[in-house]
Amino acid sequence: MTKHDNSDIREELESLAPNLARLPKTNRKSVPKGYFEDVEDQIVRQLNFLHLDQRKPSIPSGYMDSLENRIVSLVQDEQKVIPLYKKPVVKYLAAASIVLVLAFIGINRWSENNATTSLSPIASNSTEDAMYYLYLQDNIEDGDIELLIENGLVEESDLSVADIGVTELPDSFTDETMFNSEFEF
Amino acid sequence: MTTITDNEILHLILQAGEQNKGYRLLVSKYKEKLYWHIRRMVNDHEDADDVLQNTFIKVIKNLSQFQQQAALYTWLYRIATNECLNFLKNKKNINQESIENTAVFYMRAQDETDGDLVLNKLNEAISLLPEKQKLVFNLRYYDEMSYQDIADITDTSVGALKASYHHAAKKIEDHIKSSL
How far is A87 from chain B (nearest CA, A)? Predict the structure, then answer.
């Protein structure tokens, strides 16, 4: 503490308050005996209680020295350009595409086979058969029929339309439609 | 006996393993000055002890914020003064009773046993001053500080401090005169 020349303070006081300037400066208030001897201990004890000397948490040695290098390399890794074909996600996408294409082809073929087999019973349904028989009745010569029967290629009973349960044909069935191979169902 | 400098104390506090020694030296060097500065403000010893301990704890906790351009002792006084003013403000809020009146009562009770009428009048007069005037008067009269140091502690202009001190000295002089 820088003590100034007290003379200026004293002179100032004498000019302001001469009676006050003549009084002795004493601390008339009492202090418990030994108080000032214990103050340091009390305060240091409180400081230790507050762990003020451990305010800074410890860090591994050399942590701060290597920190900037580690951060720079992390930033560089983030900024590296990876070619599209090297990215693993592209490989997975390509494999998935191939599987999808194969699956599509397989399903398509299976559907076609199913469609063919399912057409057979439709083609052999009674209406179509009836049309064939009518055509044969109208256009085949008796000699041809006999020849077929003789050779056992056709049974006589097969030539009767009534046998297959068709009594009436719809009006829409004309010669033109009967020769058309592609029927609409 | 050579007195340890403030810089040496600060150096010890910042040195690992020497902190407690530094704290002790800091407290040892300033305990009495700060105690009496606080005691004149709060009157009661128990209160002064509390405020003194809080002051040192705050000083040590905030040493990293201390600007070395300023003198350590003005910084210590500044913190002690703030602690006193906060203490008085809280006490005033709790009691609803004027601190000045309490102080006067306390002084009179004590003075009756001491018997020195003029000195009693001095203490009574000081206790009747407004807080700011009392603070300035104590720092100038008892601690014999320059106006510039008081300005650093109280954040007040030197001109305003001079006016404050002059008013306080005149009031006290008048109070003492009445007892002569």
Answer: 52
Q: Which of residues 110-149 of B touch A (CB under 8 A)?
A: 110, 114, 116, 118-119, 122-123, 140-142, 144-146, 149
By Cβ distance, the residue of B118, B146, B166 closest to A23 is B118
pLDDT one-digit tens code per residue, B15-37: 888 888 888 899 999 999 999 99
Residues of A in contact with B45 (CB under 8 A): 29-32, 35
B98-180 fold: Arc Repressor Mutant, subunit A (1.10.10)
- Taking the domains of chain A in order of start, what are their residue ranges? 79-123, 124-185
Write out chain A residues lying below 8 Å of B172, CB-based: 17, 20
The token pair at B124 is: 């009574």
To the nearest whole Å, the CA of B28 is away from the closest chain A CA by: 6
Q: What is the DSSP string of B67-119?
A: -TTS-HHHHHHHHHHHHHHHHHHHHHHHH-S-HHHHHHHHHHHHHHHH--HHH
pLDDT (tens digit per residue) in A5-56: 678 899 999 999 998 998 888 776 788 888 888 888 888 888 877 765 555 5
CB–CB contact A19 B169 (8 Å): no
> What distance in Å separates the CA atoms of residue B78 and residue B155, rounded to the nearest whole number?
9
Window from A60-74, A157-171, B158-172 with minimum mean pLDDT: A157-171
B60 touches chain A (CB under 8 A): yes
Please compute the mean of the pLDDT values over residues A63-75 and round it to a whole number: 77
Q: Is domain B1-96 annotated with CATH 3.30.43.10?
A: no
In sequence order, what are the residues at sequence separation of 6 or more whose Cβ sits closer than 8 angstroms to the Cβ of residue A127? A166, A169
pLDDT of residue A179: 47
The ranges assigned to domains in chain B are 1-96, 98-180
Planar angle of CA B57, B63, B69, nearest 5 degrees? 135
Residue B173 has its nearest CB partner, among A6, A19, A47, at A19
pTM, two decimals, is 0.56
